[in-house]
Write a structure and sequence with these properties.
The chain is of the alpha/beta class and about 450 residues long. Helices cover about 50% and strands about 5% of the residues. It has helices at about 35-45, 65-85, 95-105, 120-130, 145-150, 160-170, 195-200, 205-210, 215-230, 235-240, 250-255, 260-270, 275-295, 310-315, 330, 340-350, 355-370, 375-385, 395-405, 425-430, 435-445, and strands spanning about 5-10, 20-25, 50-55, 90, 110-115, 135-140. About 45% of the residues are buried. It binds a DNA duplex (14 and 14 nucleotides) through helix 6, helix 13, helix 17 and helix 20.
DNA sequence: ATCGGCTCGCGCAA
DNA sequence: TGCGCGAAGCCGAT
């Protein structure tokens, strides 16, 4: 593994004891740098290796559907780890307490965890690193070019990060070694009490059917193959047409780490598809830009985090008359005057997803029809976190920041409410795609 | 149908 | 210090 994936969260040296991989963002066994690193440390120290997952109840407004999606994936993680002779544990309760308690109970000697720029995850990791007297190593298993290696500061736009990524990509876009069986004398007979876990998450397991999307590493692999066979070649022209089915739909798998971006990128880059470059732009540049934004901007999910020019211009339009004015419940229940917006919102609530192009329109209209930019921002973040299967993710926060706050964008002609933040209109959508077909596709779903 | 202007600031060249 | 240029657009002029 490239050492640039490693970030030590304290500088305690290893003395003795088992290696714990605290799995969090990257919920997979295959193609997981953090697990590979933990395994090689365990072999080096001749120590046992275990994997821990800490289940946080009510994580960032997550709904039962999202827990069900995640837990189905974790059941597969348990199976695959068992096949490799690695025990898997799930702890419930506040991870800032349950993780250190687990580490102490086990007398662990090293904790390895994966990288996630979200504040709540940083609090968990840092409280662990402060509480335990063992080394805590963070491994960026999510990004292809590790976030901290790509850039040491918040990037201004895609173009500034793109250059840096392209320079480093040849060093990082390589096959991930496969995980070999972990052969030690330790027993791997542990098994998770799933009934207890489901109860702690407050889900029955039936919610998955309502969303209608399979979960887990095998489903992710199937979805990827399906996209390669029919979808990838047309991606360039179809992706911005919400009435077509032109996007990959892989985002929930990437969000929960059930699918490795590195594997996907490697296959795409070798594919020779005519849409290769456009897809790689989304998968690599835009994804890593979102992580960069959240890592270096602690206000990534609020009005406070947007660029100064956008703050100023939105502030100047604070008193502008709003032609339509809605509150959070109106938005959540899709009770606006705009059938296009309502359709996007209804589809989101029903299926946990929204077309990428509509995500921009959706957020910009929340700005247009809310009493203040702050209120709009809060509404967008809450509804995105609550309903998107891939919510609670840097991509979502960066998308809202772009739509409402001009982050990673440039100023445009001054107009009511938006100021110089880029505007999007119903008319524009009508000229770009078949609105009626989009609405019908959601109503008939 | 096509085109330019809108407007700020980063990063690089000079 | 100047200059080119930037996620997905909009609008009015031609």
């Amino acid at each position: 593994m490239d050492e640039r994936r490693l970030h030590a969260l304290n500088d305690v040296p290893y003395s003795s004891g088992p290696v714990v991989y605290w799995m969090s963002r990257d919920q997979r066994v295959r193609d997981n740098w953090a697990l590979l690193y933990a395994r090689s440390r365990a072999l080096e120290y001749r120590a046992p290796l275990v994997v821990l997952f800490c289940l946080a109840e009510r994580f960032l407004a997550a709904r039962p559907e999202q827990y069900t999606f995640m837990l189905a994936g974790l059941r597969a993680v348990e199976e695959e780890l068992r096949a490799c002779g690695i025990p898997f544990y799930i702890e419930t309760g506040d991870p800032a307490r349950s993780a250190p308690a687990f580490v102490e109970r086990l007398n662990a000697g090293l904790v390895v965890t994966d990288f996630d720029p979200l504040r709540v995850k940083r609090v968990w990791r840092e409280s662990l690193a402060a509480k335990v007297r063992v080394p805590v190593h963070e491994i960026d298993a999510h990004n292809i070019v590790p976030c901290r290696a790509a850039s040491g500061k918040q990037e201004y736009g895609a173009h500034t990060l793109r250059k840096k990524l392209n320079r480093l990509l040849p060093e990082f876009l390589l096959p991930v070694p496969s995980l070999k069986k972990f052969n030690t004398a330790q027993s791997s007979s542990s098994s998770v009490n799933w009934e207890r876990v489901y109860r702690a998450a407050g889900v029955s397991g039936e919610e998955a059917e309502r969303i209608g999307m399979e979960s887990g590493p095998r489903a992710a692999e199937r979805a990827m193959r399906r996209f390669f066979q029919k979808g990838l070649d047309d991606y360039s022209w179809a992706r911005n047409d919400p009435s077509a089915n032109g996007q990959s739909g892989l985002s929930p798998y990437l969000h929960f780490g059930q699918l490795s971006a590195q594997r996907l990128a490697l296959e795409i880059s070798r594919s020779g598809s005519r849409s290769r470059d456009d897809f790689m732009e989304q998968l690599v540049v835009r994804r890593e830009l979102a992580d960069n934004y959240c890592l270096y901007n602690p206000r990534y999910d609020s009005f406070e985090g947007i660029p100064d020019w956008a703050k100023k211009t939105l502030d100047r339009h604070r008193a502008d008359v709003r032609e339509y004015l809605y509150g959070r419940d109106d938005f959540e229940e899709a009770r606006t005057h705009d059938p296009l917006w309502n359709a996007a919102q209804k589809g989101l609530v029903r299926r946990g997803t929204m077309h990428g192009y509509m995500r921009m329109y959706w957020a910009k209209k929340i700005l247009e029809w809310s009493a203040s930019p702050e209120e709009a921002y809060e509404t967008a973040v809450l509804l995105n976190d609550r309903h998107q299967l891939d919510g609670r993710d840097p991509n979502g926060y960066a998308g809202i920041a772009w739509s409402i706050g001009g982050t990673h964008d440039r100023p445009w002609a001054d107009r009511p409410v938006f100021g110089m933040v880029r505007y999007m209109s119903f008319k524009g959508c009508a000229s770009k795609f078949n609105i009626r077909r989009y609405i019908e596709s959601i109503e008939n779903d």
